[in-house]
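Subject: design request, 198 residues
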């Protein structure tokens, strides 16, 4: 079972989804769980199947003291880069929380300070701490939903399956038919030897 970090603080776990994608937004979530919250299944979203993630989303939303989800689109990603966009999405999610946290638990090794709230960066934090794992699930589920909706507009890229990540199929389709307005133009969408149709 995962743990909480400091028991004497109101802790908000923060994580993002979609940082490595070629298309679509980056999505962040922030979750404050009760100190007595326990769940043996809760874990990093990447190691849970979709059915389990959706089940856990209901549990998280029903039990959380506060939770929020925020989106930064591909245009902003191209403007300020993906790292800063990930931080911005987390900041937006933290700002939307109905309860002000006293400590931010950030998945990863870097973060831009948010106001005067102290933070702790934790590598692979979504495999260690409940609030970060909960945030990872909400962020991934929300982004998957957005990409399913975008798939309806552009089924030729198979975003229903790859969710915008750089699979061989996705890159091949970009090379074959070009890109959409949802692709991140600042990313290397195809290998350098190919000419991209923008």
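Subject: RE: design request

Done. Sequence follows.
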């Amino acid at each position: 079972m995962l743990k909480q970090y400091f028991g004497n603080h109101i802790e908000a776990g923060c994580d993002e989804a979609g940082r490595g994608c070629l298309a679509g937004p980056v999505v962040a979530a922030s979750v404050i769980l009760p100190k007595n919250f326990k769940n043996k299944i809760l874990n990093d979203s990447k190691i849970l199947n979709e059915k389990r993630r959706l089940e856990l989303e209901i549990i998280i939303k029903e039990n959380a003291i506060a939770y929020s989800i925020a989106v930064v689109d591909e245009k902003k990603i191209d403007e300020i880069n993906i790292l800063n966009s990930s931080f911005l999405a987390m900041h937006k999610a933290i700002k939307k929380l109905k309860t002000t946290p006293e400590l931010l638990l950030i998945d990863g090794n870097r973060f831009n300070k948010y106001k005067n709230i102290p933070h702790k960066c934790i590598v692979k934090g979504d495999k260690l701490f409940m609030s970060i794992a909960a945030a990872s699930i909400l962020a991934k589920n929300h982004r998957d939903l957005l990409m399913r909706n975008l798939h309806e507009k552009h089924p030729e890229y198979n975003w229903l399956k790859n969710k915008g990540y750089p699979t061989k199929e996705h890159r091949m389709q970009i090379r074959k038919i070009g890109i959409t307005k949802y692709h991140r133009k600042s990313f290397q969408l195809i290998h350098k030897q190919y000419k991209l149709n923008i």
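Residues 11-146 form a domain with the Nucleotidyltransferase; domain 5 fold (CATH 3.30.420.10).
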